[in-house]
Amino acid sequence: MQSTSGRNERGILLGCAFKGGRSDASTETLRGLSLTTESLVEHFSREWHGSNTPKVAKVIEIWRPRNAQDRFRNYRKKLEAVTSIQELRTYYGSQCICDLGVKDTAHCEWESCGICNVIKSCFSRLAFGARYDYGSKYGDGIYSYHNPALADRFATSSMSSPFRAILACDVVVDHNGLTPSRSDESINDGERVFVRNSDAIVPSYIILYTK
After folding, report:
1. What is the domain range of residue 95?
2. CATH of the domain at 128
3. Of 66, 108, 132, 143, which has the maximum CB count within 10 A?
4. Number of domains forming the structure of the chain
5. What does pTM read for this prediction?
6. Residues 6+ apart with CB under 8 A from 28
7. Is 2 a domain residue?
């Protein structure tokens, strides 16, 4: 059994719900969706560098409520006032112990379901109520990845679901240079993106896939 302290390089979220309309899109109907969704699938496939090339089955768009949007926007403005910034698309993985997306897009209430806890709290709570990923690389914070195959290392799924699930996120970081320090508020080392403040990252899509 996992401890309530979380696992290495997991993360956080903010207060989210599924957006209606396109919440159950299969790959067969992607042509009828927005260019944004099609571009996401292309980005996911292009950035995947690892064995067992995945096949995207469904893309679920996450609607972010105003308070979560405001926190992200205000954090970005605050950071922009003191430094130059980057806004990046990254991928976040955690265990998903329910059948999310198999029959519908309803999230579960299991405390141990990392993906649903992240969706419900929008990065302010993880699996088992943990507030941060406890990573040895840069310390406690939220770790997401440019390469979805790296996020996939943390994407365990329910035995009754045919899918694996990871989150496509938008994250704001400052320019740190090539020698990041453990004292930095945000770090983009080319492989992982680390932020200490959950306001710096928001979830945008759930990607369900097989490999």
Report:
1. 17-210
2. 3.90.228.10
3. 143
4. 1
5. 0.80
6. none
7. no
Tens-digit pLDDT string for the chain (211 aa): 333 333 333 322 223 444 433 333 222 223 334 556 788 999 999 999 998 889 999 888 888 778 888 999 999 999 999 888 999 999 999 999 888 888 777 778 888 888 998 988 889 887 777 888 887 788 899 999 999 999 999 998 877 889 999 999 999 998 754 456 666 789 999 999 999 999 999 998 999 999 8
